[in-house]
Structures are given as C-alpha cells and as structure tokens.
Amino acid sequence: MDTRHIRHFMALVECGSFARACEVVHLSQPALSRSIQELERQLGARLFDRGRFGVVLTAHGRAALPHVRGLLAAAESLRQEVEAIDELETGELSIGTGPYPALALMDRVCARFADQYPGIRLNIRTDNWQDLRLALLDHELELFVADAGELSGDPDLDLVQLPQPEVVVFCRPDHPLTRKRTLAWGDLLDFPLAMTRLPDDVERNIQALSAQKGGLKRRIECDNIAMLASIVAGSKAVSIAPRPVVAGLLASGQVATIAVSGIETLRTRYGILHRRGRPLSPAAGKFHAMILEFANLN
Fold first, then answer.
1. Which ranges carry the HTH lysR-type domain (predicted)?
2. Are 85 and 113 a contacting pair, CB within 8 Å?
3. Contact residues for 256 (Cβ-Cβ < 8 A; gap 6+)
4. Which of 29, 46, 28 has the alpha carbon at shortest distance from 37?
5. What is the pLDDT of residue 84?
6. Chain centroid to CA 189
7. DSSP one-letter code for 181
8. In angstroms, how far is the first alpha carbon of the chain from the final one?
C-alpha cells in the first residue's frame, strides 16, 4: 500500500472537501480522486460518500481511520529513526579487536567514540583473528582490527593496513636476563614464553628461531594481554608485545624491555577489516575514520 494514498486519505478527512484537500496535497482534483479510488480498490470498500457539503466517511472509512493514523505515525517514527541513525544520535555498532590492538589503540578509539556519540550502543568483542573473521562474515561485526598477515588475500574481506608499532621483548625488572648485555633468541628459551595465539606464519617463524634449542617447549598461551602482562610481572616468564601495549607498565617500572638480536622478523601487521562489497553504516564509517586517526598518531 502506497503511503501517498494514505496521506491523501487523511488530507480529505481533515479538509472535508476535495477542493481544500487538493490545495493541501498540491494535486489536481482528478489526480486526488484517482488516488482515493486506488486506495478504495486496494481495500475493496468505499471510504467516502460525496454530498452537497463535501465528503464524509462511510462505515468502512470510519473503521479504517484509526489504522491509517497508526500507519502514518509509524511511517513518521521510521523516518525519524533513520535520520537519527544517519546523524549518529541512536543505533548500535558491533566491532572486534585482536588482543594486542585492544590496548593502546582500540581502547582509545572506543573512548573517543563513546564521548562523541553517546547515543550509539557500542558492542566490543576481543578475540583472535580467526574467530573475528568468522563473526564478521556471520554479520555479527561490522569491522575489526587484528593481525592481518593471513587475511590479506581473503576474497571476502577489504583490508586497510595500519602503521605498525615497534615490537619489544619484556620481563620483570629483576629478571636474570636483564643482567646480560647481549641476548639472542635462544637465551629466552630457558624461561616460559608468554604469548597470545599466533598466526600460523608467525608461529612457524618462532619455531624456526627456537629450533636450535629443540623448539619452543616452555609456553604460556593466553589471549588476555592484561593477564599475560601480570604473569610476566610476577614470574620469570618473558613476553613479546608492541611497545604501546606495555608503555604503562614500562613507565611504572613493573616490567622492563630487553634487547634481543634476531627478532626483527617478529612484527605486527595490524589492519582494519570489513566485508567486501558491503558499505559501512554511518557509525562504522566514523569509527573506521577514528581508527586511522589514532593509528597515525602513535
């Protein structure tokens, strides 16, 4: 049912005559008559009786009137809701982040977004890149930021590479390794290595580096970076992370970095990913722009 016919019906009800209704809806009388006739045809009932003093509703017209008012109110509510979403006054945004970019990047972006657009309900999922990809393709997320090394050739995804922060090895300040001037990767293997789940190619790289000592045997795996950092600060475990992620811990003296040769190939590959061929919502578009802004400020 065309809402134009509904609006013409209401104009005729409120004006009481075709002449006055035509002025309100800016139609000729024949055109307005055809619109009302089409509505009557769709409903299968006569809605108006035409008399000497104008038009009056029939019994069918009186029965239709409250429904017509409800339809117009719903249409106006829909229009206002759509405008509010476009103006970022309301709505919902679901985004994802890998464990490392969750700290010192996505946390700051989310804070800024929440301040600027408090009417948007923001749903944040922290997970590994594999599960985030599945959630994105299942329409549970609009975009996510994670290590994109294994996703760069994915035909279902659009990828925007981000500037990559420095990767550091860190441990607690009184760790035995801090007393050595020069360290190689093999020196780390005497202690547990605390890391998140790694992309397959990075995992292969670490195993190759560790092969000289029989592989990586002492390992703690956890996708919660705050928990990993706490484990490192309270044990002899060693970890690797982008410098911005542990900047606060370094500044407070809870952990210290150590220089290790041969780790140049261990680097981040952050990227923003969203579904190919699907435009971002207004809220997701703003969030995407904020990610780029913050990533380039680091």
1. 1-58
2. no
3. 170, 171, 172, 173, 175, 178, 250
4. 46
5. 61
6. 38
7. S
8. 54
For tokens 């970076």, name the residue: 225
Sequence-distant (6+) residues with CB within 8 A of 123 are 92, 93, 94, 95
Q: Which residue has the tokens 């997701």?
A: 284
Half-sphere exposure of 165 (CA within 13 A, CB side): 22
pTM score of the predicted model: 0.66
Which token pair is 123?
């749903």
CATH numbers and ranges of domains, the chain: 3-86 (1.10.10.10), 92-164+269-297 (3.40.190.10), 167-261 (3.40.190.10)
Q: How far apart are CA 217 and CA 231, in angstroms?
A: 18
Q: Which residue has the tokens 């301040």?
A: 115
pLDDT in tens, 28-68: 989 989 999 998 999 899 999 887 778 888 999 899 889 88
Cα separation, 105 vs 277, whole angstroms: 26
